[in-house]
Amino acid sequence: MDPNQYFESLKQQGYSDVDAVHFTQQYYPNFEGPSQGISMLAPAPPGSLELGAMTSGGLGTPTGGLVAGTVTAGGAAAAGGGMSMGTIAVVSVLVLGGVGTGGYFLYDYLTEPDFFGEVYWSDDGFGYMFEEDSISIVMTQYDGACDMYDDFEGEEFTLTENDGLCFLEMEFETTVTDEGNYYDVCIDDDGDEECIKIYPYEKGMIMRDDSNFCEIFVSDIDPPDYNMSMQNAENWEDEFQDKSDSIKDDGPMGCQYSLDYDESSGGSLDTFQFSSRDAAGQMSNASGDDLVHIVMTQGSDLIWAELEIYIAIEDGASMACVEVDSADENSDCTYTRDDDDYWSTGEEITISEGAYDLCDGSNGGCSVDINIIRTGNQEPSTMLATLFAYAEA
Fold it and tell me: pTM of the predicted model, to two decimals?
């Protein structure tokens, strides 16, 4: 197991990001954890406030550069994980439904996504605004003007001012698909298609890439200001954190968020590892089909009475599974285990549909995200693992 895999296994067991780095470095001294902040998903554009780098005179000075059409902070992407440069480009230059100046539209005014027209702010102090035929990177004015962004106006950027904010609008070919509780947004970059999921919420949204790295943006917050005092900047960060936590609570299963700004608690390490495989048998449009098997490959015995198992099919809503002998006509999903009271290393369970048809196999199968949580007397409950399995038809 390499350092990154070890780090991710600790994250799946519920350790905080910083604790996971702390324990990983005990075994791999040269390990460096994923970089903090928005750069894991979309590096800050030029002039971002960089609220985490405040000085006594106010906020940090504008930094950043433009690389191959992608706005970056310091010209670098995250070193410890996150998205490829291609995917970063998707997030940084999405245009929902527009192509060039002529353009075409995937949505009309009755069906356009409800996140259009809102400014979504990152914790780095820049934002995005999605519209019917474009996306704009949004920054606050500096000394009452947008002059500092003039160098970025050109073939792919149009700089405008509105309501005290600066908008860099970009145009690229993009397709958007409404998947129910999220939008699948894809861009074709010279034949290389990159996609990202957007989950809109009342107070903001979550962007998620194919590696399940997620980043939170808040719309229900006043724009930051270059001229705000140290105290006001800290207050803005606190408000952003509170609202992003609320959005995170409602977010999709399996997200790996950027590092929290806390300190390692140290202590001892109790590791658990699990693996998954497809369950045999044909998928049908009836209920009760077996989906996947889960085996514990490392860890001490777990008491079944202290475990909860949740699944999500095709990035849908989270469903609590019950032990098959306790299932009834309202059970979404079930799991089958052995007859003793413990889940021990080498033992396998089978997760199946309950009273409803969750996956009929018509598309070749379904993705199954699994969360294994330990409750009992622990406060709070501990996430032992998040697995990304696939139930084949």
Answer: 0.52
